[in-house]
Specification:
This protein has 309 residues and is mostly beta strands. It has 2 helices and 21 strands.
């Protein structure tokens, strides 16, 4: 009797496993990243792609026990990371055959401050069933620190509070990027890890703190081209962000003026997004090609003589 029950259970398990691919194929879940290497604490945007192949409307909504959308992250050795943040999504209905994409920043949701390899999996819940994407690997790097300064926060209400500005470089496969990190050195809170763009390593970036303790940064993004950025104590960009190019007379440099203001001296401002001037091809009447000169008469006589021989 016992052996018969075991046989029945084995058969049921086999049937369930055989049916699983068909059931899970009804909803396809994928996850994508823009690249596979990130600097610690920078925004890490994962795009979750959901395709409804069920042949009917797919209704996605939280219930009392499950969120319809979740993300799992594993660290070294496949150990799952404990979430440090929460998120929610509005209910969603996907029509048969349709695909939707949902971006999510996982940096504030998981402890991703340590250098190492990680894997992310997206999970969708619907009608008592979970649909998972294939795990996608990525790497966290600490970058290279090239400048740092700690300042106080002005004002009586913030007396004793501080911020640390740090410039870091991060090597990607085809370029090196410059980042600014703003953190509280006493609590460890990270206010931003912002990418400032490409950096030419042969030129060291300039950084100066002004009278408000905002940080001004000028760095070379391409030969003879520079980017000027200002960030406040909470890591927010203070517009406008300006581009400069070197001139034959002088490269742009950061300077503290006598009144305490920070300014870019030298070079000239330009719009990097402006369309390039159109190239005008010459028309038929422009700079005509000169016709060959007439052959001198003595040369003609010599040619006739040679031909007559």
């Amino acid at each position: 009797m016992q052996s018969r029950n075991n046989a029945i259970l084995s058969l049921l398990a086999f049937l369930l496993l055989a049916a699983a691919p068909t059931a899970f194929a009804q909803v396809r879940v994928d996850v994508a990243l823009k690249r596979n290497v990130y600097l610690a604490y920078e925004p890490l945007i994962a795009t979750v792609i959901i395709t409804n192949n069920s042949g009917a409307e797919l209704h996605l909504a939280d219930d009392a026990r499950n969120k319809w959308f979740s993300v799992q992250v594993e660290g070294a050795g496949g150990h799952p990371l404990t979430p440090i943040g929460t998120y929610s999504n509005e209910p969603l209905t996907i029509q048969p055959g349709d695909t939707v994409r949902r971006p999510i920043n996982i940096t504030p949701l998981f402890p991703l401050g340590e250098h190492g390899n990680y894997r992310i999996t997206a999970v969708i819940y619907s009608d008592g069933r979970h649909y998972s994407s294939a795990p996608l690997g990525f790497q966290i790097s600490n970058g290279r620190k090239i400048w740092e300064e700690t300042v106080g926060i002005p004002g009586e209400a913030a007396k004793g509070q501080r911020r640390t500005y740090t410039l870091l470089t991060h090597h990607l496969p085809n370029s090196t990027m410059l980042y600014l990190r703003v953190r509280d050195p006493d609590t460890g809170a990270i206010y931003c890890t912002s990418q400032l763009g490409r950096i030419v390593l042969s030129d060291h970036p300039e950084a100066i703190v002004d009278t408000k303790n905002h940080v001004h940064i000028l760095h070379m993004i391409a030969p003879k081209q520079y980017l000027y950025s200002v960030f406040d104590l909470n890591g927010k960009l203070v517009p406008p962000q300006l581009a400069y190019q070197a001139t034959t007379k002088r490269n742009p440099v950061l300077t503290r003026l006598p009144d305490g203001r920070i300014a870019v001296i030298g070079g000239e401002a330009y719009d990097p997004n402006a369309p390039a001037p159109a190239t005008i091809l010459p028309g038929l009447g422009d700079s005509p090609v000169p016709l060959p000169a007439a052959t001198p008469e003595p040369t003609k006589k010599k040619l006739r003589t040679l031909l007559d021989r």
